[in-house]
Design brief:
alpha/beta; binds pyridoxal-5'-phosphate
Amino acid sequence: MDLEREFVLQNYSRYPLVLRRGKGVYVYDTAGKRYLDFIAGIGVNALGHAHPRIVRVIREQAGLLLHGSNLYYHDYQGPLAQRLARASGLQRTFFANTGTEAMEGALKMARAWGHKLSPEKYEIVSLENSFHGRSLGSLSITGQGKYRADFEPLLPGVKFVPPNDGAALEAAVGGGTAAIVMEMIQGEGGIFPVTQEYVQAARELADRHNALLIFDEIQCGVGRPGTYFAYQRFQPAIQPDVMVAAKPLACGLPLGVLVATERAAAALGPGMHGSTFGGGPLACRVALEFFDILDELLPAILRVGGYFHVRLNELMRKFQFIKEVRGFGLMIGMELAVPGKQIVIDAMNAGLLINCTHDVVLRFLPPYITTERDVDAAVKILTRVLGKV
Ligand SMILES: Cc1ncc(COP(=O)(O)O)c(C=O)c1O
């Protein structure tokens, strides 16, 4: 900790906890103290820690080929793109390394899409309270001033509209719109889902104005809501033109993807985009293994997520300062009438890792292998911690 304070850029405010190892839903600090991990690296460690099948493929692949660059083919990029196409209903994948990078790709696709139609077609319509990443492009469409303020001016032509307000969206979208971007469940913004009617309206407006509809599934997607992607919660699913995902895809190895329809993908031709590390054999192989496991886990995510929801609603009846429990599957927020920071610290000291977003929303993103018993253990700790408020 001392060395970090001296030599690492001071852009994070870390909790005073040094993690050394993990197994299943638990992580351990340097003293060997055990913590129930209900934040999972902010939604990354989908299979918990040291999952035997993930450990096995990483070991094997490390001895074969870690990186070959995008100059050449390898065994896993094609099969993973095929798997993503089957899961998403979208045809073509670009492989990046992080969420924000996947979003940069989507923004470039939107710009190139617009350029082909008219030099005036470059606007992006995005939602207030959204979060899309920290690079200048992703930041430009992030609808929270606190993240953008220090870096302005950012990309021109971005319009922000309030979520779930169809009339405001209709007023913002027009011939100059290249893309409409939204999270199906705003994560950083406090676990706020958008409604089916709203997403349907966005789909119709995008079609009417020949704009791309881009869904950011980086936090809410890839199994977390109990479906492969959060837009598949709707009956029938509302298909985007472009979808970006990252966090859980390679279970802790960096991997981000942009997946697009054939029509949208055609906007980015040879030489227009690229990445040195994106889609390497190690990350792609792990992601393929993860998808095999995820197929078996989806029903459990819904079941255990539903149970967690019920248990948190019990807490809401017990503690008056809990205002609302929101979310789907294993993406749950609990909004409080009091600041959440101390609760997060108390929970950590009591052996439960969670975090707090927007000052008052406790955020739970447990691994997909979480069981009802793990939920009971977490709720027991939470009850104790909340009882002190
Ligand atoms: C919805 C959403 N989009 C984009 C990002 C950025 O992803 P990354 O931190 O991998 O760049 C995040 C990260 O929290 C996110 O939650």
